[in-house]
Each structure stands twice: as C-alpha cells, then as structure tokens.
Amino acid sequence: MDNAKRLVLSSAPHLRGGASIKRDMYIVILALLFPTAGAVYFFGLYVLLMLATAILCAILTEYVAKWMRRQSFHMDGSAIITGILFVLVMPPRTPLWIVVVGSIFCIAIAKEAFGGLGHNIFNPALAGRAFITVSFAGALTRWIAPVHSLLADGVTAATPLGEGFTTTLSNVELYKALFFGNVAGSAGETSALLILIGGVILLAFGVIKWQVPVFYIGTVFILSFLMGEDPIFHILAGGLMLGAFFMATDYVTSPLTTRGKIIFSVGAGILVVLIRKLGSMPEGVAYSILLMNAFTPLIDRYVRPRPYGYVKGVKEEASP
Amino acid sequence: MNTRVVELLGLKSPAGVHPPSQKLAAGHAIERAPLPKSVILPLQQHIGAPAKAIVKRGDEVKVGQKIAEADGFVSVPIHATISGTVKQLATVASPVTGQPVPGVIIESEGKNEWIELTPADSETLSKEDILTRIKEAGIVGMGGATFPTHVKLSPPPEKSIKSIILNGAECEPYITADDRLMLEETDRILRGLKIVMQVLSVKRAYIAIEENKPEAIARMRQGVAEGSLPGEVEVVAVPAKYPMGAEKTLVKSILKVEVPEGGLPMDVGTLIQNVATLAAVYDAVALGKPLVERVVTVTGLVGTPKNLLVRFGTSASSLIEQCGGADPSADEVIFGGPMMGIAQSRDDTPILKGTNCVLVKRSDIREEYSCIRCGRCIESCPMGLMPLQFVNLVKKEDYESLANYHIADCVECGACAYDCPANIPIVSYIKTGKAELRKSGVR
After folding, report:
1. Does B423 touch chain A (CB under 8 A)?
2. Complex ipTM, two decimals?
3. Which of B91, B233, B238, B291 is deepest in the core (most CB within 10 A)?
4. Angle of the A78-88 helix axis to the A21-43 helix axis, nearest 10
5. Which three-class secondary structure state does DSSP give residue B53?
6. Shortest alpha-carbon distance between residue B366 and chain A (Å)
7. CB atoms A257 and B420 under 8 Å
8. What is the pLDDT along chain A (320 residues), one digit of tens a residue?
C-alpha cells in the first residue's frame, strides 16, 4: 500500500474539447486575409505598410501593457486582429504616424485599460477609429480612387456615401463596382465579395453566428427601403459588410445569447440608417456598433436563456 | 414565441456536447476479477447517513454477511464482499469525497464462502417486503449517484408515478459497463424492471439507450418481446449526446416535458432507474442476494481495456494490473467517466457501489485564460443556464447573486467546461459558488 503511485488530482471534467481562443482568433485572421488582400490590390503596397505598422504596434503595446500590469503575455492573435481591422477601416493613404497613434490607442486604452481581452466594452479597432476621427479629423477626409497598381499614388475621390459623390455609372454598374470593391473608401471595406468570402469562412468554422450579419444587414436593407433610399446601395456601400461580419460579431463586445445578438444587430442596423440619413456624418457603421457595444451589458442583464423547468411566476414557490 | 419561429431564428440552443465516445472496452465480455486477498469497505458508499459497523476485529465473516447496519431510512447496510476475518475497523479516505470515513478491512481466507441465501417469489411478496429486501441488500443507484434505491422507490403518496425510465444511456465516454450488462444480463435487468413496476404499480416503462449502442438496443428489444413484462415497455433509442443520461435531460428527451425547477422526476410522474441497479434489485428480491459486486469498466491507458465483475473493496490497482497494467505515461486515475468522474490521489483506492469505471489517463491540465464571452458554455448547458456568469460572480465573491442565475439547477455535468476555449475550470467555480452560497444560507 505504501508503494502506491503518486497521481495528479484534477477537477472534472477531465476531458476537454477542441475549442481554444487561439483557434478562434487564427480563423478570424484567415478570414480577414481576403478583404486584406483586396485592400492591397485596390489601393497599393502602402496599405501593406500600414498593416505591418499597425500589427507591430498593436502587439508591442499589448506586450508592454501586460508587462506593466505584471501579467503574462499570450500571443493569442487578438492583437493581430485589432491591428488588421484598424487598418481596414482607415482611409488607404492614412499617414503612418496616425496608424501608430491609432493602434496604440486601440490596445492601450480601448482594450488593456479595461482589463485586456474579454473585459473591454468597446470593439478596440472601432474605438481606435473613433478616436482618430475626433482627434485628427483632417486625416480622415482624403479618400482616393482605387489605383489597381502596387505603387501608384492615389487620385482623390469621393466615397459612395460621401458628399460630392457623383457617378456616370448606371445602377447595375454601380452595384457591380460596389460588390467587387472598385470604389473609393476605407482600405478594406470596399469589396463586398471578399468580405463575404471571409464571412463564409467564419460561419463554416462556427466562429460567428449567422444571425448577426443577417439581422444587421437585413435591418439596414428594410429600413433604408422604407425611408425611400436605395436599399441595395446602402448595404453595399460603406463599412456595413465588414462591420456585420467582423465587428458586430466580436465575442467580447456583443451580447452572449443568440436572442441578445439579434437585438444588438437590429439596433445597430437602425442606427446605421438613422446616422446616414439624418446625422451629419456620411457613414454610421462604426458608431452604430460602438453604441450597441455600450448597450451590451444591459442586454445581457435582461436577455437570458430560460432555465430548464423554469416557468414564469412559479419560481418563488419552488425555492423555499 | 411560436416554436417554428424560435427554431427558424436558431434560438433553440442545441445543449449538450459530443465528446469522442472512446468505448474501448465495448467488445469485451464481462470477466470476473480474481477475488482480492483483502478488501477495504468504507461504510459510506451511498448518499445519506453512513452505515454503522456491527462487526469487530477478529470476527469471521462470509460473503454477503451484513457488517454494517443502515442508520435511518436514508441509509443502507454494507455487506462483506469476501469471506475471511475482520482485520481492522479503521478510518479510510472516501474515494468520493476524499474525506476520512469509517471503514472495515477484511482479509480473505481464500474460500469465497457465502451466507445462506433465501430466495423468494417476487410475485407473492408484498410491496413492503420487496422494499425491505431491496434495502437489506444494500442497493443504491449504481449509475454513480448512489442514492438508496428503496427510498427512491417510496415516493410520497401524493406523487402519482405513471412510468419508469430505465436508464441505459451511458452517455459518458469510455464507460461500457451498462452496455455489456444489457447485452449479457438482459434477463436479470428485465426481471428487475418487472419487480419495480410491480412495486410502483406502473403500467408504462421506457428503456432509454443511446443510439450508439445498436446491439444493446436490439438485445433489449428482443428481451422485451420475449419477456412477460406487465404493461407497455418501449425501448427508445435516444440521441448520443452528453449528458443524455442525466435524469432531467432524459425526462425531457423521453417524455417531452421538463421537471419543474427545483423538483424531481416524480413531479412529472416518472422515476428513473439505472440498468445495473435493476439487475441488483432482481438478485436481491428473487435470490435474496445482497449487493457485493458490480461491473466496472477498466479503461484508458491500460494494456487491454476490460469490463470486470468486481467485489466492492477491491483496489483499483489490482484491476489495472489485470488489464495489463497502466501505461508509464499515465498519471491520473479517475473513478467514473472523464466528464464527471473523481480523480483519485492513489491508485489503490477501493471500488465502491457507485464506481462504474476506472479510467487511467494522462493529465491534461491547461492554463486558464480570461473568458472571451464566446457564449459556448451557454449553448452547451443542458439546464439552460449561463455558466460564465457563475465564474464571474465567484471571482467577484458576489455569492448572493448566484441564486439569481439559478446555480442550484446546475447538475455539474461539465459540458460547459468541455467546450470552453479559455480552459476555465467552470465546474470547480460552480462547486465553490454552491458551497459559499450554502454557507451564507441563501438558496
């Protein structure tokens, strides 16, 4: 009896499934490669430089923040995603120093100051964009037409949702341009097609729920139609596609339950149309998601699954 | 909301998980383990009051002889599982709680001499006589819960029991003990079922078996067709999804109703019995044989995984030896399945009435990260709870709020932790939370 083998004591369950934060994050990165490649294709190598800068700054900032907070740093991929997304929502010729400031803000303020991955209230990339918008407004006014060349400098052009956007294209031709991404806009927002490919990857791996993009985009479609706008134009132009598949689906900053996610998505959809139609800004996707991020704790408080065997009103009797 | 709409919107959470089944010992017929030279018998192998020892050091005992008396209604006696001499009345570590409990150590004289058994014709026995025989045989729920069976079969008169669900789901990975029993001891199980149907005067029974055990399903169907069971008995193939064998999950799956919150299956007129328990009921009532042995699946990182018929009190290490020994890389021994089983600190702990499996494995302790709020735990929870909120509240030491999230309803099946990408030991947090909540006196 004394030579009994020494054993490890762990708590049940002693078996773990295949889910891991890293797996989720790297699937998102894989999906992001499509709109990212599109950004480089349409707007040139400068976008690649922006991406490298943002990713490097994001990782370094997280490393320093973890060191300052005496916590261990994990290369879980979330900082890479923030870096990529931040660039994809910025104009394709954003000065590098703004990319540096913005990506540091994304990680240091929007994420780590709240407690790091899992604790942040706002989507870090969108918070970074909002910060740049209010701090360096001038930097976000220069948009260029797609250059289709790796090195050419851009020619200033208006975005489809912007003031002064005029086109000689027929409706169908415009939809086509918007769908393939051949328009002025933020680096990674222009091509609906490439974003959809990324979105299909996320859905196929079960990383996101279909309800989020469907209800978000669907709400924008229906509401803009009801308000007398061109619904197809509204779902293809601007950042709606990228926001619907990659940012409204962020686990950390969106509600926990599917019911909650639907409420979040419909709310964000309504806000997009209201901001675009009635607000002073041409685009509202970033703010619609940030505003709904703020509502997420409230939604989670009230939208809960029904426990097994729970009937409304009978609860008090059951618990003495 | 309309159920069609709920399904269309994907609001019906799928609940449950699909761990790899790993039924390594499924093809191995039940083998009798060699009789041990000595046994350690903790006097608490059941839920309720520990039994009281009625033997003293030096006493000669035979197999099946009562060595400890039930202490109250919710308690059962313990019997000698080998013949020989009582070597010691000692305090032993409970393999279930790890806490010290009184125990009896018996040394074999190598003869396997039984007490004289008194068979009976169950059809002529009164309900009270049957329940007494079940209690005196020391029978408890052998699926792992170890609740005294005679108590479960004595529902308060105001609860009318209309059906019995025979639980042969065996949803935990690795375990094949019930599967083998259904294949090899069909008759004993069905005779046990007949007795229980007689006791409760029910006319309806369901035999629930996970669809990944087609042979057991076929064998039980054949047994039902041949047998002379009273009333309607239906063998139901239930989806193979963990934790299908949990009582409340099973009730919902079979009867399409939910047990009210805080209630028991008898609140919806049903009662669940494990297949091994019913085989033991038959032995006790018809043959007068006390519960001294059970089928244990010995599996995982062992030479040959097997299903062994084991006397209680036998050390796990001797069973592992009989299966070709443990792989040198193994450093964990689990009593029960990998999802809800209990890790043992030593490999020589004794097999008890509730030990359906000895799982030998390599430890897989992963670093815990922060919750990323992915919601997988909510979707996998069979009880419709929000497991991550329990973790958050326990971390904040806000124990009172745990009740608002229905922590008492958690069955600790571990589906949430199985699916957690952040490796959070959710069940451990829940156990802490329940214990703290109990301390503060809030339900």
Report:
1. yes
2. 0.90
3. B291
4. 30
5. strand
6. 9
7. no
8. 334 567 888 899 999 998 999 999 999 999 999 999 999 999 999 999 999 999 999 999 999 999 999 998 988 999 999 999 999 999 999 999 999 999 999 999 999 999 999 999 999 999 999 999 889 877 777 788 888 777 777 778 888 887 777 777 788 888 888 899 888 889 999 899 999 999 999 999 999 999 999 999 999 999 999 999 899 999 998 899 999 999 999 999 999 999 999 999 999 999 999 999 988 777 889 999 999 999 999 999 999 999 998 876 544 433 33
Find, among B43, B154, B147, the residue nearest to B104 by Cα.
B43
Give the integer Cα–Cα distance in Å for B324 and B165.
37
Nearest to A212 by CA among A245, A257, A256: A245
**Strands of the B270-274 sheet, one edge to the other:** B232-238, B204-210, B163-168, B270-274
pLDDT of residue B442: 53
Q: Which domains does chain B have, with CATH numbers?
A: 125-287 (3.40.50.11540), 376-440 (no CATH)
Most B CBs within 10 A among A8, A258, A308, A316, hence the mutation to make, goes to: A308
* Residue from the list B13, B258, B343 with its beta carbon closest to the beta carbon of A10: B343
Query: Would you tell me how many other CB atoms lie within 10 Å of the CB of residue B255?
Result: 17
Question: What residues of chain B, 334 to 363, have a C-beta less than 8 Å from chain A?
Answer: 334, 338-348, 359, 361, 363
Inter-chain CB proximity A8 and B347 less than 8 Å: no
Which residues in chain A have Cβ-Cβ distances shorter than 8 Å to B325? none
Cα gap B57→B86, rounded to integer Å: 5
Q: Is B383 left (phi over 0), alpha (psi -120 to 50) or beta?
A: alpha
pLDDT tens per residue across span B45-99: 998 999 999 999 999 999 999 999 999 999 999 999 999 999 999 999 888 888 8
Instruction: Write the DSSP string, A65-87.
Output: HHHHTT------SHHHHHHHHHH
Chain B residues in contact with A11 (beta carbon < 8 A): 343, 425, 427-428, 431
Longest CA pairwise span in chain B (Å): 71
Q: Which of A210, A93, A83, A85 is nearest to A145 (CA)?
A: A93
DSSP state for residue A247 in the 8-state scheme: I
pLDDT in tens, B393-414: 999 999 999 999 999 999 999 9
- Find chain B residues with C-beta within 8 A of A310's C-beta: 261, 384, 406
Contact yes or no for A256 and B425 at CB 8 A: no
For residue A155, what pLDDT is reported? 78
At A135, the amino acid letter reads S
pTM, 2 dp: 0.90
Cα distance between residue A294 and residue A299, in whole Å: 10
Please state, as a whole number, how many other Cβ atoms lie within 10 Å of the Cβ of residue B73: 12
Tell me if A251 and B375 make a contact (CB, 8 A cut-off).
yes
Tokens 């990408």 found at: B421
Decide if B422 touches A, using CB distance below 8 A. Answer: yes
Q: Are B45 and B146 in contact (CB under 8 A)?
A: yes
Q: Can you say how many angstroms the Cα of residue A216 is from the centroid of all Cα atoms in its chain?
A: 13
